[in-house]
Design the sequence.
């Protein structure tokens, strides 16, 4: 199965796991919280890790395991853990692997809620350097003897800065640093996080992976590239068996078991169904993004378009090297001086005004007064967010219908 193509694995990777009941092709949703053992020794062995078995569904269950198998296969990893949300995957991973006195190097262009989480980690005594991850020299310069981890996203939202992921991967390898990459924006097959040298890849399944805006979920996949023997924070009790599993073991114990942000079995089913078309949807999302970006760029009422697929994007060459088959489906724009972005969004008829991204429908959002309002103007400037910026999350509609909608909305404003 691991040698087969992406779209094949997407729909077949979990079949090896299950004995389908009555020929059922979809993994059954098992709602049982508890699991019975034939004898007492069985449950003792399971608790002591001598035998793999589900014991309580906060930590593991069959439906979630099937989804983890597919996600792990798509990333080419050595194991995956699902969580209730993308934020649960991120916070569980960071709280499980860091402790007071550690230093981490973090992208200054983070998803807003992850940025706020970093402030919480700071309260718990983790030292954080925010750097421009498009510049490897800035990442290298932030290194300290107590640095444990580099954390970044591939393409930042909403300004679309592209991290120099391969260079960061090489640097982390040299220094034996854990490289944690949020790959929500560029899920496989767009981007191969393993080839780029990431250690752990985290993704919000809520976005492109499930794709339909009807379920929350998150995942962390260990790509098998990191030597956990070199990581100082793994508890001796979790240093068991294959060292490739040490990190996930600690994330599972501290994240799923102790923090408890477990994905619901019904959600796993919804995510698995949505994910069957990830490859197909991503292609269409990216085509729509590139075509609309090209249209907007040439329009007199648009001052600036932010999209890595455009030749004038500051990291276009990095994006071209690292991405396969598309440049992602987020693009942002600034309208020409004097045109009110709120008035413009109100003129859009097909495009929906909503927060969220990675939906099948194209969405528009004024950025500064909504998702980055809490950050304040000064921080917005540091992140490159203009006050009038509009973010678009491209869906899978027919391209011409989207262009027509933007055409009529632009014609209606600023005259
Ligand atoms: C949405 C998002 C998250 C959080 O995911 P949820 O499933 O909404 O918790 C994390 N990182 C990025 C880049 C996101 O876009």
Sequence:
């Amino acid at each position: 199965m691991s040698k087969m193509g992406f779209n094949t694995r997407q729909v077949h990777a979990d079949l090896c796991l299950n004995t389908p009941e009555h020929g059922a092709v979809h993994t059954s949703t098992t709602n049982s919280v508890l699991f019975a053992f034939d004898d007492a020794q069985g449950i003792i062995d399971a608790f002591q890790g001598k035998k793999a078995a589900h014991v309580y569904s906060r930590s593991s269950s069959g439906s979630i395991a099937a989804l983890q198998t597919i996600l792990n296969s798509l990333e080419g990893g050595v194991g995956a853990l699902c969580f209730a949300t993308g934020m649960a995957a991120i916070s569980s991973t960071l709280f499980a692997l860091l402790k007071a006195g550690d230093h981490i190097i973090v992208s200054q262009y983070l998803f807003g809620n992850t940025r706020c989480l970093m402030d919480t980690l700071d309260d718990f005594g983790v030292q954080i350097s925010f750097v421009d991850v498009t510049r490897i020299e800035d990442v290298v310069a932030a290194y300290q003897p107590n640095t444990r981890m580099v954390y970044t996203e591939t393409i930042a939202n909403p300004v679309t800065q592209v991290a120099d992921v391969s260079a960061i991967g090489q640097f982390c390898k040299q220094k034996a640093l854990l490289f944690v990459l949020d790959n929500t924006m560029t899920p496989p097959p767009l981007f191969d996080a393993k080839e780029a040298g990431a250690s752990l890849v985290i993704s919000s399944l809520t976005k492109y992976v499930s794709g339909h805006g009807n379920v929350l979920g998150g995942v962390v996949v260990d790509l098998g590239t990191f030597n956990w023997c070199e990581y100082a924070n793994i508890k001796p009790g979790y240093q068991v068996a294959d060292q490739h599993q040490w990190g996930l073991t600690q994330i599972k114990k501290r994240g799923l078991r102790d923090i408890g942000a477990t994905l619901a079995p019904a959600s796993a089913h919804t995510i698995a169904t949505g994910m069957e078309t990830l490859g197909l949807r991503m292609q269409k999302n990216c085509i729509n993004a590139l075509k609309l970006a090209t249209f907007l760029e040439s329009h007199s009422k648009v001052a600036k378009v932010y999209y890595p697929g455009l030749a004038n994007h500051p990291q276009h060459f990095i994006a071209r090297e690292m991405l396969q088959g598309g440049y992602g489906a987020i693009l942002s724009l600034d309208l020409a001086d004097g045109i009110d972005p709120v008035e413009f969004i109100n003129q859009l008829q097909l495009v929906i005004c909503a927060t969220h991204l990675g939906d099948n429908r194209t969405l528009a959002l004024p950025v500064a007064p909504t998702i980055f309002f809490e950050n304040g103007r000064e921080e917005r400037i540091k992140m490159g967010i203009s006050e009038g910026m509009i973010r678009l999350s491209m869906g899978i509609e027919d391209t011409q219908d989207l262009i027509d909608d933007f055409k009529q909305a632009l014609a209606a404003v600023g005259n």
Observations:
- The chain has a mean pLDDT of 94.
- Residues 85-87, 111, 114, 153, 157, 182, 184-185, 204, 206-207, 216, 218 surround pyridoxal-5'-phosphate (CB under 6 Å).
- The radius of gyration is 22 Å.
